Amino acid sequence: MEKKTRVEFLYENSFKATYGKAVKRGQLDKFNPRHEGFTSLHGMTYKEPEDFFYDRYLFTFLSNMQIPISNYIGDENTPREVVFNFLVECDPTPNKENLQWLLGLYKNQLISYTPTDRDANINSNFYEDLYTTVKGSLDTFSLLKKSNVLNESKRDINKYPDYQTLSEVVLPYTMMDDDGSSDNVHTLDPKELNCIKNHQLFIEKSKDYDETVGRAELVFENKDWVIVITHDKEANVEFGKYTTWCTAGTRYGSMFDSYHGRGELFVLIKKGYGSKKAAKNDPNVRMQFHFEDQQYMNIPDRPIDINDFFYTNKDIKDYFKKYITKTVLPKRQLKNKVNDDIQFLLKLGYGDQIIKMLKESKPKVLDFSGNKMDSDILNEIGDIESLEKLDFSDCGLESLPNSIKNLKNLKYLKVRNNLLTEVPSWINQLTDLNFVDFSGCKIENKFDLTGLINLTDIVLDYNAKLKELPTGINTLTNLARLTASNCNIKTITDEILGCDKLYLVDFHGNEKLSNIPDKLSSLPEIIAICIDDTAITNEKISSLNKNKRGPEVTIIKYDN
C-alpha cells in the first residue's frame, strides 16, 4: 500500500470526520440543483450523501472575491474537497506544518454555525482573514521559530486558541505596505524585517540570500521588547537610522567595524514604538548595548542607567546573563581586565549571581578588592575550581568562606585589610599556594602552614594582636619572603632556619621582639633582615653580623 502524505492523512482521518459531524448538526447547506445560485456546484460530483453539503460562507467569499472555485477542486471534485484545499492553501509553509491547526480553527468556525440562526454568532471575516492576514502571520511565525526567539510555550502553533492570538504575537514582525518612513510601523519596519529574513537565508545557505542587504539576528522577544544582533554595518545603519549612534554611520564614517570586532552589538526596540515619530518622542524606545565596552546608549547616544533598566526588565537581564558569562567574562580574562570584573557585574545588577556566573566563565583570576561583599554571596566561591588567583583586599570580611578549601588550583590568596581575627585551619589544604597575604587584618591565632612546600611569599604585616609566626614554617622549603612587621611578635624560633631559600625577612615594628636566631643571617639565600623598631639588642645584632654568610647580607636596624 502506498504511504499517504501528511496532507492526505489529515484529510482522511481528521477533516472528513469534522465535515461529517457538521452535516449531521445541520451546520452546512445542502445543494439544490433547481435553486442553487453557485454555478460551480452544478459541475461537481455527488456520490455520497455528504457530497451534497457545502459551506455557504466560503463559497460566498470566493464568489465575492472572484476567486475561481476550480483553484481548489481535485480528483474528488466535491464541495468538501474545496474547503479542505482552501485551508491547505492558507498554510504558506512547504510541508504544511500548520494545517492541523487550521483544521482546528475551521472546526470551531463550524461550531459557531447554528441551524436555527446561521448568522448569529459566526465570524463573518473568517475566510477573508485566513486568505490574507493569517497567511502572513503563519509566514512570520515560521521565521520566528527558525530564529529560536520564541519561548517553548509560543513555539507550538497548536497551542494558539485562535488566529487573533497568533496575530498579537507576530504583530511586531509583520511587514507593512510601505518603506517604513511613515508612522504606520508597529515595531520593525520593512527594511529591518528584510535584514532579519536575510540573515535567516544566510544561515540556511539559501540561494535567495542577498549580499547587498544587511543581516540582523532576532534573538529575544517578550511582551515589551525585541532584541536583535546587527551582524554587519548595513543592518546597523537600518536599525540605527533614527539614532545618532556612531556605529550606524555619519558623514564622517562609521565605527561599526571597530565595535563589532570587540563584541556583538545588541539593538533593543520597544514593541509598538518602532516608528520615526515614536523615536522622536521618547529617546529610550530604542537602545544599543555593547557589553565589552560597557556602552548602553539610547537614541541620542546618551548612556542609560543599565542597572535600573535590568531591575525593571528581569527577563532581559536573564537573557544577557548567558552572553556575559560565556563571551564577555572570558574575553576580559584574556585581556587582563579581571581587576574590575566584580564592579562590572555589580553595575549590571548581577550581585546576587556573581559566583554562579563566574563559575560558568571559568576564570583563573578574581579580584574582589574594594568591594564590600555579602558573605552569603561568597559562600559558594569554592565551586569556581578554575581559580588560581584570588584577591579579597578591603572587602570588609570577618571570616573567609570555608569553601575556599576546595580551590585545589589556588596559588595566590590576598586578604589584605579585612576584619579577620583568625586564619582558618584548612589553609594548609591549599597545597598549590605560593603567595598568601593577610596583612592589615586582626589576626590573633597561631595557624598551621605545614606542608605548603610551594609557598614562596608570606605577608602578615600590621596584625597588631599576632604574637607568633605560623607553625610549620620549617616545612616551607621554597619560602623566599616573610614579612610580619608591626605585629606583636616577641620571639622568632629556630623553625625559621629550615627555610633555606629565604632572601628577605621583615619584622620591623614588633616592639616586643627580643629574640631571633643568631644563624638567620647565615641562610644560603638571605639578603635582608629588617628588625628596626624592635627590642633586639646590640649583642644580638653582633651575633647576626658575625654569622652573616657574606657581605651582601644587610641587617636593618636604625635605633641603636
Describe this structure in words.
With 560 residues, the protein is α/β, with parallel strands linked by helices. It folds into three domains: 163 residues, no CATH class; 128 residues, no CATH class; 221 residues, Ribonuclease Inhibitor (Leucine-rich repeat, LRR (right-handed beta-alpha superhelix), Alpha-Beta Horseshoe). The strands form three sheets. A nine-stranded parallel sheet has the order 8-9-10-11-12-13-14-15-16, with helices on one face. A five-stranded antiparallel sheet has the order 3-4-5-6-7. The mean pLDDT is 90.
Taking the sheet with the most strands, its summary is:
9 strands, parallel
Provide the structure class.
alpha/beta
Q: What is the quaternary state of this protein?
A: single chain
Q: Would you tell me the overall average pLDDT?
A: 90
User: Order of strands across the widest beta sheet?
Assistant: 8-9-10-11-12-13-14-15-16
